[in-house]
Amino acid sequence: MAELKLNSTVPSNQSVSIPILGLGVWKSRPKECFEAVKFALESGYRHIDTAAIYGNEADVGAAIRESGVNRSDIFLVTKLWNADQGYEEAQKAIDVSLQKLGTDYVDMYLIHFPVSGKRNESWKALEKIKQEGKTKSIGVSNFMVPHLEELLKETEIVPAMNQVEFHPFLQDRELKNYCNAKGILLEAYSPLAHGQKLEDERVTKLAKKYNKSNAQILIRWSLQAGNVVIPKSKNPIRIKENADVFDFQLSPEDMNEISNWNENFRTCWDPTTVV
């Protein structure tokens, strides 16, 4: 995997290629979001992940326009929020998002959360949205195996991506194996566990071994595990640091060691409780 680069992409099951590393903008306030996205694009990032509920789609769009990077070279993701789920509601929601983003399309539109009683109708809406060209691909977020099994009984279009919390301390192997078997890319959000495990002595030991930061070790692990990764930061130094993970490779022995760190440690919501 040493040949990976910041602009490396992976193919999806819906004829779009996805940059393996992106910038997440959750909890980034408007002005700081604008500056973060603009800096990330200037630094070589080509994958930006936002959502309707984040309240910063307009600033993401403005940063993209001011960056000077061609829109066609950027992989832009946004998400359908829970309050907008349902067939007709979702079709209205994408139009609102596109207006705020200032673009005719997004590259990936995700159902943000598997809302009971609405997620399958929302997926039907996403299929229509894709057919209309408002998004190039569609996927889900926070879907566990039962949610995916239920969805795949209802549709012929398999989600291109499942965006979930995933890091060395939360390794849902059942979900990962299921996604691999169905051709669904797993995208890791909160790859740094919101910093709550960043100073773990095991991470620090590896950081010293490879002469890298603790964050870089966690990001590199997720990339080598075959995930698409979207670390969130509004700090220019960290945005650059998070992308400086392509000049080293974790050894098979160290990858194997990290595979034993799972603690089912969640830092965000728990979708395993949703029926």
Automatic annotation (TrEMBL):
Keyword Oxidoreductase: yes
Gene3D superfamilies listed in its UniProt record: NADP-dependent oxidoreductase domain (3.20.20.100)
Keyword Cytoplasm: no
Family to which the UniProt record says this protein belongs: Belongs to the aldo/keto reductase family.
The entry's keywords: NADP, Oxidoreductase
Residues under site feature: Lowers pKa of active site Tyr: K79
Record-annotated active site: Y54 (proton donor)
Coiled coil, from the record: none
Stored Pfam families: Aldo_ket_red (PF00248)
UniProt domain NADP-dependent oxidoreductase: residue ranges: 22-260
GO molecular function list: oxidoreductase activity, acting on the CH-OH group of donors, NAD or NADP as acceptor
Protein's name according to its UniProt entry: Aldo/keto reductase
Signal peptide: none
Binding residues for substrate: H112
UniProt cross-references to PANTHER family, sorted A to Z: 2,5-DIKETO-D-GLUCONIC ACID REDUCTASE, NADP-DEPENDENT OXIDOREDUCTASE DOMAIN-CONTAINING PROTEIN
